[in-house]
Amino acid sequence: MNFPDTAFSFTLDAVCPVTGARAGTLHTPRGDIQTPVFMPVGTQATVKAMAPFELEEMGARIILANTYHLYLRPGADIVAEGGGLHGFMQWKRPILTDSGGFQVFSLSTLNRISDEGVWCRSHHDGTPHVMNPEWSMSVQKQLGSDIAMCFDQCAPWPCSREEAEGAVRRTALWAARSKEAHAREWQGERRQALFGIVQGSVWEDLRLRSAKDIIPMDFPGYAVGGLSVGEPHGDMYRILDSLKGVLPSGKPRYLMGVGRPDNLVEGVARGIDMFDCVLPTRNGRNGTLFTPYGAVNIKKKQYERDFTPVDPECDCYACRTFTRAYIRHLYRSGEILASRLCSWHNLRFLIRLGEEMRKAILEGRFPEFRRAFLGRFSGGEA
Ligand SMILES: Nc1nc2cc3nc(NCCc4ccc(CCO)cc4)[nH]c3cc2c(=O)[nH]1
Ligand SMILES: [Zn+2]
User: Is 98 an active-site residue?
Assistant: First the structure.
C-alpha cells in the first residue's frame, strides 16, 4: 500500500452556525471516516463479544485498541508477527491506539512517575516495566495502528491545581519526545498519524496553557484528555467550551473516553468530532441498554412479557430480530448471547447517533436535533 503525502487529511464538510458543531471527513489510508464518529473500544484487540464482520455490519468505521494492554499481553512482538493489529484481529478498517499513559495509572498495581517516564508493575504478574514516549511510539508502530496517541500524563480527578500543572508540563515534554520518536520510528513513511493530547484538568487557564504547548507541534489531530475521569459533566462541558475556539478548526478533535449518548450530543455541540468509550459494551454485559428515552435495564421484571424491541427506532440486528422478553430471559439465564445482543445494540445506538448528528449538521438542523434528543433522553434509567 503506497502512502501519498496526503495520507491523512481532514475535510470540514459543514459547520453548524449556531453551535459550531461540525461534520467532517477524516481521510486515512485504510478508508474515510465521517464525523461525528463513535469509536468502539477493542482494548485487547477485540471489541468484546463482537466479531469483525458484525462490527462492519453495524457500521463501525474505526475502532480503538490499547498499547498498555497489548504490550503486556500477548506482547507487541507477537501482534507485529501476526501482521500488526489489522492482520492479527482481521479488522481491515482504521484503528486508533491509545498510548498507555492513562492505562498505566488506572491499571498497574504500582507506578512511579518522573520526567523520564513511568516505572510500573504489570497488573498481570507484577513484572517491572518502564513506559515513556519512546516506548509508546515503538509499541504503537509494532501494533501498526492508523492513528497513534502521544504518551501523556492524565491527572486524576479531583486533583490539586499543582498536580494539574505538573501533568500539563510533563504532557508537553512528552508530546515533543513522542513526536521526535514517532518521526524516527517511521522515517518519513506516512503510515501512522500521531495525535496530540491537551491536558489541564478542570482549570481553563491550564487548558489554555496546554493547548499553547501542544498546538504549535503541528499534529494532524488533537485530543482532549484528562476528562471523563469522574468530574461533573458541567465541568467537562465548561472545559470543552474553553477549547472550542482554540483547537485548530481544520483538524479533528477527539474527546477521550466519552461517553454516554447525551455526552456525545453535548460534545458535538462544542466542536468535538471523535469519541470512544467502553460504556456500550460494559453496559451491554450488565444488561443496561440505551434507548431514546434513557437507559433500560433489561433484568427488570417489567420486561418479562414485553414482546417489543429494545428500541423500536433502532435498526440493529438485536432490535430487528428479538424482543425485550427474550433478551431478558437470555440475561437471567446467563446466556452469552445476552451480552452479544446488548453490546451489539448499544454500539449501534452510538454509531447511529453519530450518523444522525452528521446528517442534522449537513441539513442545518443540529440545534433542533440536539433539543429533541436531549428532551427525550434522561441520562439515567428510562
Ligand atoms: N492517553 C490518554 N487516554 C485517556 C483515556 C481516557 N478514558 C477516559 N475515560 C473513560 C473512563 C470510563 C471508564 C469506564 C467506563 C465504564 C463504566 O464505568 C466509562 C468511562 N478518560 C481518558 C483520558 C485519557 C487521557 O487523558 N489520555
Ligand atoms: Zn438496537
Answer: yes
